[in-house]
Amino acid sequence: MSKQCAGIKPDGGRCRVIVAPPNEYCFAHDPTRAGERTRNARRAGKARTGTGEIRELKAELKTLKDDVLAGRVDRNDAAVVVQAYRCLKDFIELERRVKETDELVAEVEELKRAYGA
Prior knowledge:
Strands 1-2 form a two-stranded antiparallel ribbon. Helices cover 65% and strands 3% of the residues. The chain has one domain (33-114). It is built from two helices and two strands. The protein has helices at 34-69, 75-114; strands at 3-4, 18-19. The mean pLDDT is 87.
């Protein structure tokens, strides 16, 4: 027989989600899944951040291209700027890989703790 989640919402009211036995809480209120909820939220935030940086770099490069073609920026100066953008791109990718690796290490450690390894 199903029952109502034992969690309390931020407004003080009781959660209305129905959970199957032996669970007492839904995913949003289960204290044993707090780490998973945090990781999911972190990933979502990181996805937006990286996308914003990429969007900004693309816009700046398009502006630079237009300025070079219109003669407002010297081609040699633009070439140096593009090299700097390539470095930024490489660092963004490196940062993404480091964060991804750190997350995987944390997940493996959590699984080890959960299974007593």
